[in-house]
Structure formats: C-alpha cells, structure tokens
Design brief:
Structural class: alpha+beta
Radius of gyration: 18 Å
CATH architecture: 2-Layer Sandwich
Number of strands: 9
Shape: globular
Strand order of the largest sheet: 8-1-9
Order of helices and strands: EHEEHEEHEHEHHEHE
Strand content: 15-25%
CATH class: Alpha Beta
Helix content: 10-25%
Length: about 220
C-alpha cells in the first residue's frame, strides 16, 4: 500500500504484439491462478489474419478486462457491486452483486462472465476429481456463484507484491505491467516511444491496456 504522501499508481498493462506468438501461457496461468470453471476465460487469445495473399500475417491478439478509466460496466450497475479501486482497477463486490447481467451487456470488450455453477471439465455423470473439488471451492470462495466475475489484475498476487499471473507466465515477455501515471515507468515509455494504442477507443471507455504495433 502507498505510504502517507505517496501517490497511488494508475495501474495498466502493455502487450507487445511483436513478441506475442499465441502460446496461450497467459490463458493457462489465469485459469490456474483463479480456478475459473469451463468456458470462463478472463484472459483470452484471439487470432486472425491481416494483409492479402500471398502477403498475409497470422496475428495473435491477447485480450482481458481492460480496466477502463470510464467503465460502462460500473455505470450501469444498479447496486454499486462494480467499483473502482484507487489504482483504477475495476473490481466486483460479490456480496452486492444481484446477477442482473447489466454489466455483462454493457462491457464492449466481452470481459464479463456469469457463472451459475462450477461445472466439471469431464463428461456428465462423472464425480468431480479431488483437484476439481479444490478448484470449485476456491472459485466459490473468491468469486461466488450467480454473480458477475472478471479479471482484476490478480488482486491477491498484487497484494503480496507479485505481478499478475499472465504477466509472470509469458515466455516472450510480451506483457509489461506498471504505473501509467509515471512517465518513467516501462509501460509509459513503451507507449510513448512505440505508438501504443488501445482497442476500440470510439467506445469512450478509455482502456488501460495498451498494445504495441506488430510492425
């Protein structure tokens, strides 16, 4: 926690698309860290092609909750369950969430999930494995059931002085995490010197996850 007179950082992330090769390590690390059930991906990797044949490029695009400055999910929440920490990270108070799905519909980036039940990864009829029972209990302890869930830049890890799991796991060092308000931080320098940009700025949400161009 910041000390007296210390400015709270404005946390954000930079993803270098030149480095990302779509290995899904971030996806796996996120699921392992947060015990998300099947079908829930707080970290995703989209893939597509740019250019025209024969000069086409296959590109991976990692996405997650963009921790917007002006989050529409928070604006529409009728109970105040969605709120913003001093560092700008958007979180959900599971005890206030009524499962109305307004936030899920309002998010232009598809970063919200509603889980009614922690389902097994295996076919119906099979009992949960010991690990699944453990994962189910951990998930319900943190995120609950029947309420909105999302990435929070690994709040518990940050509380213990660690980086988000997706940042730590990336073998290509394509993710850089830090204070966007500090002009001398690595994310700020990368954004400034390499033309960092956000996805779909026309939505007006002001995301705090930036991308560095592929070329």
């Amino acid at each position: 926690m910041p000390g007296v007179g210390t400015k709270t950082p404005r946390l954000g992330m930079v993803i270098d698309l030149k480095r990302c090769y779509g290995c899904y390590a971030c996806v796996t690390a996120c699921k392992t860290e947060n015990f998300t059930p099947p079908g829930v991906f707080w970290a995703r990797v989209l893939k597509g092609e740019t250019g025209e044949y024969p000069n086409t490029v296959r590109q991976a695009l990692p996405v997650l909750c963009f921790q917007c400055e002006d989050p529409s999910c928070m604006t529409v929440c009728p109970t105040g369950a969605t709120y913003q920490e001093d560092d700008g990270v958007v979180r959900v108070d599971r005890n206030k969430c009524i499962g109305c799905n307004y936030c899920k519909m309002a998010c232009p980036y598809g970063a919200r999930y509603m889980v009614e039940k922690w389902e097994s990864y295996f076919p119906d009829g099979l009992p949960l494995s010991e690990y699944e029972e453990y994962a189910k209990n951990r998930w319900e302890e943190k995120s609950g059931v029947g309420v909105s869930t999302k990435c929070d830049f690994c709040f518990e890890r940050r509380e213990n002085g660690m980086e988000p799991a997706c940042v730590r796991a990336c073998p290509a060092n394509a993710r850089i995490f830090g204070d966007l308000d500090d002009p001398d931080s690595e994310p700020s320098i990368l954004i400034r010197d390499n033309g960092g940009y956000v996805l779909n700025p026309e939505h007006g949400n002001k995301p705090k996850v930036y991308y560095l161009p592929t070329r």
